UniProtKB/TrEMBL annotation:
UniProt name for this protein: Carbamoyltransferase C-terminal domain-containing protein
Database matches in Pfam families: Carbam_trans_C (PF16861)
InterPro entries: ATPase_NBD (IPR043129), Carbam_trans_C (IPR031730), Carbam_trans_C_sf (IPR038152), NodU/CmcH_Carbamoyltrnsfr (IPR051338)
Superkingdom classification of source: Eukaryota
Gene3D superfamilies given in the database record: 3.30.420.40, Carbamoyltransferase, C-terminal domain
SUPFAM superfamilies: Actin-like ATPase domain
Domain Carbamoyltransferase C-terminal, residue spans: 150-228
């Protein structure tokens, strides 16, 4: 208990249902409908597994819920937890396995408070950019400007943006590590999946402007700093 807030910590690792489902996707037709149906099946199985694990867990007079582990990266699941328990849900900045050593270091050395959004290492494969660009048929643009990027997007290109150091935690670069594409570009999803090594059925994770959030979310309380719900 931290002050008046009780933290629930739940991790889900090595799930048999996940292994079984991921072993069959190679035989499915690789089209949009199949991708959506398969992703929805994975989502349903994940949520059912979590609900079963939470059976019998006393809710009690808690003020909030903390979800960690790789399962905490599933925004739909976290949203359903918030709706089910009617309690604020918080996901740590680095909920996966990589966050364990970072947390241990912070606990051991008690570093002074400092902004950490962009204190991760620089581009790890900078020395291999030319080879990667050649492999994926990419073109490097010197002195890129918003106008140059917009022109490339209108031409159907998928644009990678790299600026400075990477963000700590989560895997969205907040503009420092971003992939840009027009949502009306039918081939963008496949290009992004191939470049990032994601399976064909994976739905792309998108960022939207706050001004348009009310068109994508139906719940109140859209302010969500650092993955808080």
């Amino acid at each position: 208990r931290l002050g008046s807030t009780m933290a629930w910590v739940f991790t889900q690792r090595g799930s048999r249902w996940l292994r079984r489902l991921t072993n069959v996707y190679g035989a499915l037709p690789q089209d949009v409908t199949a991708a959506r149906e398969y992703s929805a099946s994975l989502q349903w199985a994940l949520e059912q597994s979590v609900w079963k694990a939470l059976e019998g867990v006393p809710v009690g007079p808690v003020d909030g819920i903390v979800l960690t582990g790789g399962v905490a990266k599933n925004a739909r699941l976290v949203t359903h937890l918030w709706q089910r328990f009617q309690r604020p849900v918080h996901v740590p900045p680095l909920p996966g396995d990589a966050g364990v050593p970072v947390g241990l270091l912070y606990g051991a050395y008690c570093l002074p408070h400092q902004p950490v959004q962009f204190t991760a290492p620089g581009l790890s494969d900078e020395d291999h950019l030319e080879a990667l660009a050649t492999r994926h048929g990419a073109q490097r643009v010197e002195r890129a400007s918003p106008e140059v990027v917009a022109h490339a997007l209108l031409g159907g290109a998928v644009v990678a943006v790299v600026r400075g150091r990477q963000e700590v935690g989560w895997y969205y670069g907040l503009g420092h590590r971003s992939v840009l594409a027009l949502p009306v570009n039918a081939s963008a999803k496949g290009k992004i999946a191939r470049a990032s090594g994601r399976p064909w059925f994976a739905m792309p994770t998108v960022s939207i402007a706050l001004e348009t959030a009310d068109h994508a979310f139906v719940e109140e309380g859209l302010v969500s700093p650092h993955m808080s719900y």
